[in-house]
Design a protein that fits this description.
Length: 440
């Protein structure tokens, strides 16, 4: 009787396992305290001139135990390592005297002066690594003597090597017909079902956004149109996670807007819209060819103070109010989404924030997640019904899993509004804005 009255003995809800779909860009700003401590160990061991032991700690720091992105073996003073970064694998070795690392970019069966000129020019942009050629193979290399291979030098050197190689391999093959892809057999292809869903929503979201923009006055709604176009880019980047050439084209769209020039927003909107039209016209084969799964070791963006994230959320939420109050709920939702999705795209966010953002996207795009095989539906748009308890439980679960690292994180679920999607989005992101993300 008491169990029924007071809920004693009530079992905690069991979460249904989610499909193994990867979302968004990799962030290395998610290491638990034990991993962070390994960096300190590496630094202290290096200062004590215990170089092999310092390397043990350093590569343990880099290793994401879930992703399995690092292979490391040592026997005495000698050893080898492999780092996964997107479509590339960095392979390295050390012997107590030097540390070497190399990554293959492409095959060049015949010498090409234009290719060599490009590589020579790009060499001037590198700080730690260099482009090289080895018997018909284009590669990048990094090396350091062991006595100067501090954890900081290794980190930034290997990060430059990894991220530049992952970016340049596709661009070089795209720009020069004489080059051929190579050393990319390790990437994991998506299932046919996942590729179908992602291609379908890639086309759907572009089509819907362009249709909405066509119904708006280009001058009076120039700000709203910019929000719609940028939010679309960040949504595709996170939800569909394209790679290679497709990712590069999305990045160019956002560059159109943020390039520092004197052009009015209407012109930038026009150019972004035209680029989206071209993307919408891509064939299925052209899109799904850049949908695959990769492992990463380094984030391509940097962490920021949490105030930077708060300011982005605050600015977007201030700008959405007019559209909400003047009966443009769809635009208002997109502006709110922009505030946090811009941060997910531009910065290396704490994993706890990414998990809250993921929940936010699950609420706003239930049809996409259902199509991918996710069984938990947090919002039914047809009836405007939220699964309030499931949302609250998920937020608590996220906070509890990160309590050790962020003990002051306190998302006040009682402040959430469930009367409409636009008000839910506003109150959800308001709570994210004021979170205390000071690490322990």
């Amino acid at each position: 009787m008491f169990d029924k009255l007071f809920g004693w003995g009530k079992k905690k809800p069991v979460e249904t396992p989610e499909p193994g779909v990867v979302f968004g860009r990799y962030s290395d700003n998610n290491k638990p305290p034990a991993k962070v401590n390994r960096w300190t160990d590496a630094d202290n061991l290096f200062k004590e001139k215990k170089y092999p032991e310092s390397l043990d700690a350093f590569f343990d720091y880099l290793r994401d135990d879930v992703a399995g992105n690092v292979v490391y073996e040592r026997n005495g003073a000698e050893g080898r390592f492999e780092l996964s970064q997107g479509s590339k694998i960095v392979r390295g070795s050390f012997n107590g005297t030097v540390v070497n690392a190399e990554v293959t970019l492409a095959r060049m069966p015949q010498p090409s002066i234009p290719v060599m000129r490009r590589l020579l020019e790009m060499n001037f942009t590198l700080y730690y690594s260099r482009y090289a050629m080895d018997t018909g193979r284009l590669c990048m290399r990094f090396d350091s003597d062991a006595f100067t291979a501090s954890p900081s030098k290794l980190y930034y050197g290997l990060k430059e090597l990894s991220t530049k190689a992952d970016k340049q391999d596709d661009l070089l093959v795209q720009d020069f017909a004489s080059l051929e892809n190579t050393d990319d057999d390790h990437v994991t292809p998506l299932s046919e079902a996942e590729k179908e869903v992602k291609y379908s929503f890639f086309k759907k979201w572009i089509g819907e956004t362009l249709e909405t923009i066509n119904g708006l006055d280009a001058d009076k709604f120039s700000g709203a149109i910019a929000y719609l176009l940028l939010s679309l880019s960040y949504r595709i980047d996170y939800m569909i996670a394209p790679e290679g050439k497709l990712l590069n084209r999305l990045e160019k769209i956002t560059t159109i807007y943020f390039r520092k020039d004197e052009r009015p927003v209407t012109e930038k909107n026009r150019d972004m819209t035209e680029e989206y039209r071209k993307l919408g016209e891509l064939s299925k084969e052209e899109v799904i060819g850049y949908l695959f799964r990769s492992k990463y070791t380094f984030s391509i963006v940097a962490p920021q103070p949490y105030k930077t994230i708060s300011d982005s959320i605050h600015a977007a939420n201030q700008n959405m109010v007019w559209y909400r109050d003047n009966n443009y709920p769809g635009i208002a939702c997109q502006i709110t989404e922009y505030g946090i999705s811009y941060c997910q795209y531009s910065y290396s966010l704490p994993k706890a924030i990414t998990e809250l953002f993921h929940l936010y996207m699950m609420v706003n795009y239930p049809d996409y997640f259902s199509a991918l095989g996710f069984s938990t539906v947090y919002y039914d748009a047809a009836s405007n019904q939220f699964r309030q308890q499931a949302i609250t439980d998920k937020i608590f679960a996220i906070q509890n899993s990160w309590k050790e690292k962020y003990p002051l994180m306190d998302f006040k679920t009682q402040n959430l509004r469930y009367d409409s999607l636009v008000n839910f989005n506003l109150t959800f992101t308001n709570e994210m804005e004021f979170l205390n993300m000071e690490p322990k």
